[in-house]
Each structure stands twice: as structure tokens, then as C-alpha cells.
Amino acid sequence: MARIIKTIQHDLVTPDGTLAEYRKIDKKNAEGLVAIHEINSDFKGFEIDEELVFFNIKSALAQLGLDGKGVDYDLNRKESCAHIKVHFTAHGPVGERLLSLMPVGAYVGKLFAADDRRRVRDPHYLSRMFGRFDRYGDPLLSLGGMQGSKELVLDKVEGRTVAYLSLLNGRQNYEDQIMNFLPSFTLGLERNQSLRQWVELHQKWEPKAPMTLNDDGILLVRTLPLHIRTVFARVVDEQLPAGFHHTTASILQPDTMHSGNIFEVYGKSEHEITDIPLEFYTLDPFREYVFFADRDQLQTCIEDPKSLFNAFETAPPPKEARAATFIVKGEQLLGLSPENWIVRETKMHEFPGSMQSERQAMMAERYIEQQPTFPYLERIDDGDITSQGVLLTRYFPTPLLKRMLLSNHVQKCLKGIYFKYPSLGFQNYFSAEDRGLLNDLEKFGIPVYWVDETSKQILKYVQKHGFDTGMFVPLSKVTEFLDALVLGIYGSNLQEGNFYEELKTLLEGLLELKQNVDHNLLTPDTPLALVTGGGPGAMAVGNRVAKEAGILSCANVVDFRSKGGSVVNEQKINPYIDAKMTYRLDKIVERQAEFNLDLPIFLTGGIGTDFEYALEEVGRKVGMTGATPALLFGAPDYWEKKISSRFKVNLDTGTIKGSEWVSNCFYCVENAEQGLKVYRDFFNGKLPIGKHGPSYERGFALVGDDYS
Fold first, then answer.
1. For residue range 170-190, what is the model confidence (pLDDT) as tens digits?
2. CATH class of 285-453
3. Where would a tag sit more exposed on the chain, N or C end, judged by fewer CB atoms within 10 A?
4. Pair 182, 97: CB distance under 8 Å
């Protein structure tokens, strides 16, 4: 199971270590044993060649003229510790005095892992950070303040990115009272206090002093303040001019503001030093401040169904356990293993209700914290994850996480949610709360994707314009779905009827008809989509014909399993569906209201079809649906038995007074040619339909009889 540790410690450095032993050799040299404890197990120094791990002395010590070089390293991952034999060298009188005062227990430095895999090779990796800022408005990369990025020149040298920082004219020296400060300084070392600001109080800048070296001192030089949030920087000693060397305080960390303006060099040279060369190492992927738009490989991977299906296969069993992982780079996605997932077996208890509000809130909070997505969202919100990425989760996130998912920081960082199953308890079916969360995520610009085992495709949740509902649509068909004129098939789940050929002719005819139509609903460029309930029988016929005609085939699928465990025939889902939304049984009414059809088509059907007919009728009466034609496929006497008596009773009793016109929205057709005539007249503005149209005593019109 993946471990998420809340820490500000980066994986290329350790915490500061203390002097466990110390022995002065002479006035310029000493030996010490530095002990470092509580090293994060993710520290890269445990993995790489020991020659790439080196001791980095505290910069405050180096500025006072004391350098320290690691000569022997003992790293123990099991015990989370390291012991380093360090040779200390004093440069100049201040350094010599400090060498004699160093106490055992002083915090003197840390380890840095110069992991070659993390070395920045392409200058573009850094240059793209110019002009970008973190959540607090601080620049991710700049030299000399907010507007100083142009002063930072990045080159590629020997396969790595190197920046040459120009030095300011002059050098930094110390006031005479610095010697009196050293005892207090060593006391601060024992207490692990930040001491650079106190050292700076004793420094003075000499702008005209030469930047040359002799072999008995330290040269403190300055650059413009370098502000880095995205990488570690390291002085490249071999790129310094001949005779110059930098102390081992050569690492600039990304968690310091305006670091790197003072550098400590020693050696001997008659020439002046003019710049400081730096190389760079990336942070761990979660903390690189990398923007999703810059992750070309990740974007390619998440568009490839195979990559995502393979990624979900690495999630540890059992299937009933919730599992999640956060991905910020393509290499990470392609190399996923079970250890990269957080797995939780959550148990949902029935909440006590508003009468016990405090207990309710406590139980909800505990349930939220049990979710495998919680650690990632918390780290994003706390600023410990700074790179944008996507969330992979075995089950669609619980709506109780809405507060975290829609928080300002998470919304900016989370660039997609990918899930495999809508629900742990109901598998492929969404609750009303789930659909509410889907709509909220859509509004906040967080895309949601279903890695769907049934279709073997990646489906994206998409809302139609003007509607508060949506469907999961194949990636290649999103634009088609958004722009489509929507037809719908209502009919029996028990009987296919003899409608296949007629529906095929109707849809093919409509595709041909639209080439010569210019209507607000239909133009030559308007795609078509067809929606059914997704079940067998007439619904399967509709989806099959749509798929064969090249029309987007959609379904609103209901889980018809009752609490008693019985399954009705509708539970069987037909195999001809491209896009879909799913519903639990208790939300069947909402499901019917969310078909949002432009052109309904009714085939022979039972109780469900009657219900659907009533909804289409009511939708037109109250203006929820525009006055568009609904086709009733079949013999007139069938539809008369089903519709006319009810319409006549309502007409005779006056209960539909003023709404009789609704009957002109329904047209009985016995074949595709008659249906196409209705469509042709409608799109050409010749169909007597709507509030100002006629009323038909049957409750519908007969093509060629009441309507011509």
C-alpha cells in the first residue's frame, strides 16, 4: 500500500545532522562524526551509488570560513539514519576561531543525493517556469526579484542545464566584532536555530574590493537574489575558473526565499571570478510545480485506453477495497505498481440524522478520512503536492468529499478524475448524490472519466448545453454529443417488433434530409444522437440501428434490481451503446425526465412506455420541452386504444382546457416514409404544430388523414 507522509522534507536531502564526535587536528583542520536520524525512507541516497551522495555543510558555517567534506559514509535505511565522517577545514581567522569553538551536538549539515536521474538536462524545463507563480503569488523561478528572470541565462553544458549567475562587483567582509559573536553562534548551532540572518548582521559589503583569492581565506561574493521553487540548484565546482573552489555548502534548496545571493569560494588565483555556475536537480514529481499542460507524455497516456486499463490492473486486490493514486507524469502512470496505490476498506454506517448533528458530523468526517483519495486531497490543500495531475480511483469518489474536491487549491491542481466503477455497493449505477457531484465537478472544470470495462473505452462525463444533466461519452464523440439533435426510442423491453427496417430507413432518410435543411435544430452540420433506456427488445433495436447508421448511440440505464433481489428483464443491457448514464432504481422518475429528446419515437410498449408518453406530453404542455413532433410507430387502432380514450375523457371534462393543442405534437406513422414526411414538413416550417396549431380528437394526428 502506498504511503503518504505529510512532510516538508524533500527526497534528495536529509534533515540536518549533529556532531556526535569531534576532534581538532590543528588550527586549520578537525575531524568529526555527523549523525543524522529520522531520515525519510524515500531519501534517494538509499538507492543510488554512494559516490553520488555528499555532505552539505550549513551555509552559515561556510560563510564564516568553515568548510566540511564527507570522507566516509554509512547509510542505514532500515534504521533511517546515517553516520558521516567529515573533515573540517578553516579558511581565514574567523574560520579558525570557529573551528576551535565547535561543540559536540551542534547541527552542522545534511546529505544531498545527486541522483543523476533527476538532473535537469533540458533548459526548457526551467525556462517555462519564468512568469509563473505559486499559490502565494511568489515566482517559481526568478533572478533579482519578480522582474529579474531575463538575467538568468540557461545553457546546455555536457548534457546538463547550467546557469551562470553573474556576480556583483565587490565582496562581503566582516565587522571586527564578529569574533565576539561566535560563542553565541555555536550555541545557536546546538539548538538548531536559523543563523544566517544573524551572520548577515556582522557582514559589510565592499563594492570596490577585488574578487581575487589567496590561499588563506574565504571569498564571499554576491549575485542577484535567486528565487527557486521548482528545483534544487548545486554549484558546479569543475565549471569554476581555475584555482577557485566552492565550499560544500553548494546546495540551494527550493523551500527558501531569495536563496543563493552569497557564495563562498576559496583557493588561489590571480584572476577575478565573474560568475557562479549552477546545475539543477528536479524535486519529487508531486512537488515540481509542473503544470498539466507541460506533461506531454501524461496527456498522451491518458488518451490511450490501454495505458489506463493497464494502470488500473496494478491496483491491489480485493476489488471490494477502495484504492486511489495521484499521477503527475506519464512515466509514473506507465510504471505503476501495487505499492503506488493507497488502499482502504471503508465501511459505511448509517448516519444518525440531523437530530444528532454533532455525532452526524463526526461520523461523516471519519468516513471522509477513511477514503484513499483523502491523503492526496489533503496534501494538495496543504501545499505539499504542487504539481498538477490526475486522480485514479477504483470507485467514483464519495459525494462526502465534495468540500475537498471543490476547494480552491484542489480545483487548480486536479486535472481529471478517472474511475473504474461508479459505486462499491451498486457497481455500475450512480446515486442522485453522485450525479450531483458530477455536475459540480463539471461546473468547476474538473473532468471526470469512466474507464469502462463494458465498452473497453474511456468515457468522459459531458453535460449538454442548457441542461443540468449529462452522459459519459467516448472521447472521440464528445463534440458530436454536444452538438447533436437528439432522437429517442421508447418501447417494450419484451418485444422487438418489426421495426428494424422502418427505423433504419427513417434514420438514413433523416441523415439525407438534413443536407437540405436550415433549421435552428437541424442543419447539414448537425450530428444526430439516439437515446434509449439501454435494455433489450425495442430499445436494443433502436441502439443497434443507430450504431449501424453511424449515429451516436446513447442510453439512460436503470438498475432494476429490487431490494428483494429480483431482476426484471430490463436489467439486461444491450450491447449497442456508445454513451450512457446510469441510475439506481429509486431515481427512475429523474431518469425519465433526463432523456431531453428533441424528436421522441414511440414503438409498441407497456407500462414504462405509457409513463414515458405522459412525460413527453406534460413536457410540451408546460413548456419544458419545445413543440417538436413525436412519432407513434404502428397501426392507428393500437394508438387509439392506448391514447384516445384518456384524451377524450380529459377533453370532455374540461381538465385540459387550453392545452388541447398538445395533441398536434404526436403523429401516428405506419412506415418510415410517413415519418420522414412529418420531419420534412416540420423542418421546413410547414407542420401545424404548437400552441397555435389544431387539436386532434384522437389525441394525436394521423398522417394522410387529420394532417396532410
1. 999 999 899 999 999 999 999
2. alpha beta
3. C
4. yes
